[in-house]
Write a structure and sequence with these properties.
alpha+beta, Arc Repressor Mutant, subunit A, 3-stranded antiparallel β-sheet, globular
C-alpha cells in the first residue's frame, strides 16, 4: 500500500465526495438501473455537475490508489469502495501518526 498515493488521491474534495457517496450507494444512486451490488456505473457520478472526463479522472485516481474496485460489464464500468484497503490505510495512518 502506498500511503502517500492514497493521501494524494484523497486531497481533492470531489474524490472525498465520491467515496462518501459510495459508502451508501442505496441512498445516493437509487435510480441506477443495474443492481447496486455490481457497483455504481460511472455515468451515475455525472450528477455531481462535473464533466464526464473530470469524473473519469477522479475515478481513475481513486482506483489507482487502491481505494476503489472496478468491474467492466460490456461497455459499462462499475465502481465500489474497497473497504479492506480503506481499513488497512486507516490502520496504517493511525500507526504512523
Amino acid at each position: 500500500m502506498d500511503t502517500f498515493a492514497i493521501i494524494k488521491a484523497l486531497s481533492h474534495p470531489a474524490r472525498m465526495d465520491i467515496l462518501s457517496w459510495l459508502k451508501d450507494p442505496e441512498k445516493h444512486f437509487d435510480a441506477q438501473e443495474h443492481p447496486l451490488a455490481m457497483g455504481v456505473c460511472a455515468n451515475q457520478f455525472q450528477r455531481s455537475g462535473l464533466a464526464q472526463s473530470t469524473v473519469s479522472g477522479h475515478l481513475t485516481a481513486l482506483s489507482a490508489a487502491g481505494l476503489l474496485t472496478t468491474r467492466r460489464v460490456g461497455q459499462w464500468m462499475f465502481y465500489k469502495r474497497d473497504e479492506e484497503a480503506i481499513a488497512m490505510f486507516l490502520r496504517q495512518l493511525t500507526q504512523d501518526l
